[in-house]
Automatic annotation (TrEMBL), chain A:
This is DUF1501 domain-containing protein.
TrEMBL record, chain B:
InterPro entries: DUF1800. Pfam families: DUF1800. This is DUF1800 domain-containing protein. It comes from Gimesia algae. It comes from the Bacteria.
Length: 395, 446
């Protein structure tokens, strides 16, 4: 196991410049002081994930009735308890569950669900139900406003992806950035950090130490990319995994960012859903597990929690093209060593439906409330625009 | 004696290439060798006059600049393609005969920070940009009046949702907190009453529209004055508050002066000048740029170079604008450096200063410098011939080359140690020295 500090102690990078060791010692101390700072990683499952085939109520005969073509065979299901299970594509998630690193929260939704991707996502992002309140800011952006450290130059929130920054992480004062790929953190030239002696001028010292530490960090990052033994990670070859690997590396660099955000597209499965949904859930589960293993190897498990959500679930009854149409509630996952693992809410009834859709058993803001209050240790009232009873998701 | 008395060269603070480069790097995105020589051999106040009257930049200005800029801008909004609109503005910054206007347009973009993320209309964003440019040096009231009728700003701050009986305080709050008075100079009651005064303002068919049926014409009490106010009357009340002059004074000082360089006396004096000149921004800029304070040693290299300056200044200094680099590529680099034009991070704009420098943005700056030296900012890539540039300006041996590049890019700072400590491979020693100048720590200060 090689965490950041031991890496710095062992690294030949220290010999690059006489200026570096003193500076890095300072950084190591600074990061030690910040060690309690917890990080939230959000995975957005874009397109409306079919919750019924993600967390499967296999004991309910209605499941087979509604899902003729899309049914997962009972013998293949990874059982979580005597009534619920995961599809075989989520083997990795099942392992996390067995390892007490996964909370499964079925039936998450909000009143009067909106089946528009755009509107429903805006509701999840903003934590506000009315479109008039969808002002481009989000619950994590507002949270970052509260988390902001004076004098910090770290981005408050980092979105890894090539689309626009999601409203969820935009706040009134936060600095949210988008990062496309790891090349953006690596130097194209072999630059050595400037080794001018500290001048005594505060601004010059700031620039010098920032430039030096950035160059060292970039080299450290490049070394970890080239040499898997440094971060010892086994990430599968999925787009989501690569994004999470980049997040893991940024967390190791310890830049001070508390919120990371990533999305996995493709859940808009209206027809011939079976194979594509299977692929998506495999990618999701294996990527998530690889991330948590990597974080554990870095000795950072106690600082990281991951939440995964989708803007809505799907209709209970499969449609005529072996797909599912836009529905209402769906499962949310919270993962990490600090999670209260288990199944944390009631599964919606397959009999008492709301116009063919699952009624939600829990409001998504209860989960947000817990993550803000019990994980990020901030008052959830402003980010959520009210008080919502937290569902206990942190152990 | 004013705190802003005019700069006159002295033996201690001589008029030299370092001060000329300081003027250019701080205000108008750098100078070419010819522009630098012209001003070093002339009088300092004449050089400032040239900057203020848009006569400083002479090299590389296309004869049909306005036509070309319009062409690029129109194509961007018609497609519509936000990357092309960013490239349009970068084209203007790189080639405009009026670079100070571009500098101030950027300052106002950060003051009335509006993001297309929510506005979702490139024509509105472009029109706002033109409005900011048009009133860049005008009395602030002109700009404020224009902005309160600007479709992009109104949508950004939910003005159309603010109507009688259904107040939306977004515009009202930011008008007070960010655009005019600043926190501490108004009450929550003022926010509520101003929100009511601003009801009925909306956007219709792409233009400002006032809907009297949605306007709350009840009585409001705003900053101690009671009446039935509309947006214009309200603006007049705000423009006469002392706090607005102080806020604008601080904004200009942040833009043109370094950290901790300007004391309270000078700040107050500039604020007073603004109050007594109808908040004339152009006059305040002139006061700053002509001052001894501006040219003082303390003010040189005392500010974090913002990404736009970092992007454009070396291109102009090294005359890499003919043929023009890909402004689309430049726009991508600018984004990586943390400045996504037309997409400020939030309503407060880019926090600027030291927050420009993070691991990611420092790496982006270094990689940009590498791309520039390698010719990768051209499509197709085309490595620049810096030796030809040096030769053109009579720097023939390597010592002269280094001295010239040092002066061009950074003024006359002593960068010897920095130069020696950076050893990129794969370039000639001369290219290495240029790359060292562009990536060393002095490059991040201006």
């Amino acid at each position: 196991m090689l965490n950041r500090r031991s890496f710095l102690n062992q690294s030949s990078l220290l010999s690059l410049s006489p200026f570096i060791p003193a500076f890095l010692t300072q950084t190591a101390q600074a990061s030690a002081a910040r060690k309690g700072d917890r990080i939230l990683v959000v995975i957005q499952l874009d397109g409306g994930n079919d919750g019924l085939n993600t967390v499967i109520p296999f004991a309910d005969e209605n499941y087979s009735k509604y899902r003729d073509k899309l049914r997962i065979d009972k013998k293949d299901i990874i059982t979580l308890n005597d009534s619920l299970g995961l599809p075989p594509s989520m083997k990795a998630a099942g392992e996390l569950f067995d390892d007490n690193q996964l909370a499964i929260i079925p039936g998450v939704g909000y009143p009067n669900p909106n089946r528009s991707h755009f509107r429903s996502m805006a509701i999840w992002h903003s934590a506000r139900l009315q479109s008039a309140d969808h002002t481009g800011q989000g619950w994590l952006g507002r949270a970052s406003d509260q988390l902001k450290q004076p004098g910090s130059t770290a981005p408050d929130a980092v979105f890894v992806g090539d689309s626009a920054i999601p409203a969820a992480i935009i706040g009134r004062r936060t600095n949210a950035i988008a990062l496309n790929n790891e090349k953006e953190l690596m130097l194209a030239s072999k630059l050595v950090a400037p080794d001018n002696p500290m001048s005594g001028d505060d601004l010059q010292n700031f620039v010098q130490s920032t430039v030096s530490s950035s160059y060292v960090a970039a080299k450290q990052f490049a070394a970890s990319v080239k040499n898997p033994s440094i971060d010892n990670s086994r990430f599968p070859n999925y787009r989501l995994a690569r994004k999470l690997q980049l997040i893991a590396r940024m967390i190791r660099l310890d830049g001070g960012t508390r919120i990371f955000y990533v999305s996995q597209p493709g859940y808009d499965t209206h027809s011939t859903q079976k194979n594509s949904h299977e692929r998506l859930l495999t990618e999701f589960s294996r990527s998530l597990k690889a991330f948590l293993v990597d974080i554990r190897q870095a000795g950072l498990s106690d600082r990281i929690l991951v939440m995964a959500f989708s803007e809505f679930g799907r209709c209970v009854q499969e449609n005529a093209s072996a797909g599912t149409d836009h529905g209402t509630s769906g499962p949310v996952f919270v993962a990490g060593e600090s999670v209260r693992s288990g199944i944390l809410s009631n599964y919606p009834s397959l009999v008492d439906l709301d116009d063919g859709d699952l009624k939600s058993t829990i409001d998504f803001r209860s989960i947000y409330s817990s993550l803000l209050t019990n994980w990020l240790n901030i008052d959830a009232t402003a980010p959520l625009g009210g008080n919502f009873k937290p569902l206990k998701v942190v152990a | 004696m004013s705190a802003w008395h005019r700069y006159q060269p002295t033996a201690q603070q001589p008029w030299n290439p370092g001060r000329v480069v300081h003027l250019y790097r701080r205000c108008i995105f750098g100078a070419t060798w010819n522009e630098l020589q012209r001003d070093v051999s002339g009088k300092p106040q004449d050089a400032v006059s040239r900057v203020l009257s848009d006569e400083a930049r002479v090299d590389g200005i296309p004869a049909d600049f306005t036509r070309l800029a319009d062409l690029i801008g129109n194509a961007a909004t018609q497609q519509p393609n936000p990357e092309r609109l960013k490239a349009w503005w970068i084209y203007r910054v790189l080639f405009s005969p009026a670079p100070l206007q571009e500098r101030l347009t950027f300052m106002w973009h950060n003051h009335f920070a509006t993001s297309n993320l929510k506005v979702k209309s490139l024509p509105y964003m472009q029109r706002q940009n033109e409005t900011l440019r048009k009133h860049a040096t005008a009395p602030f009231g002109d700009l404020l009046h224009a902005m309160l009728q600007d479709p992009a700003l109104l949508i950004w701050l939910d003005a159309p949702a603010n109507r009688r009986g259904h107040a939306n305080e977004n515009l009202s709050r930011e008008l007070l907190e960010l655009f005019t008075l600043g926190i501490g100079n108004y009450s929550e009651a003022d926010v509520k009453h101003i929100a009511r005064a601003l009801t009925g303002m909306t956007v219709k068919e792409g233009h400002f529209h006032f809907n009297p049926r949605r306007h709350d014409d009840g009585e409001q009490t705003i900053l101690g004055k009671t009446g039935h106010f509309d947006a214009d009357q309200l603006t007049e009340i705000l423009l006469h508050q002392p706090a607005i002059a102080r806020r604008l004074s601080d904004r200009l000082i942040t833009e043109f002066c370094g950290e901790g360089v300007v004391n309270d006396t000078a700040r107050n004096e500039l604020a007073l000048q603004l109050r007594t000149t109808n908040l004339d921004i152009g006059k305040a800029v002139e006061t700053i740029l002509r001052s001894e304070l501006f040219f003082s040693d303390a003010n040189i290299n005392s500010r974090i170079c913002d990404p736009l300056s970092f992007l454009i200044t070396p291109l102009r200094a090294l005359e890499l604008f003919d043929p023009p680099p890909s402004t689309l590529a430049l726009s991508e680099w600018l984004g990586r450096m943390g400045l996504d034009l037309f997409y400020p991070p939030n309503v407060a704009g880019w926090p600027g200063g030291r927050s420009w420098l993070t691991t990611r943005t420092v790496v982006a700056r270094a990689n940009y410098a590498t791309a520039m030296i390698s010719g990768d900012v051209y499509r197709p890539a085309d490595a620049p011939d810096l030796h030809a540039l040096a030769k053109k300006h009579s720097a023939t041996n390597s010592d002269e080359f280094e001295k010239m590049m040092n002066t061009l890019l950074l003024g006359d700072v002593n960068t010897k140690q920095t130069t020696e400590s950076i050893t990129p491979a794969g370039y000639s020693p001369e290219m290495n020295s240029v790359l060292a100048l562009l990536t060393g720590f002095h490059a991040h200060l201006n």
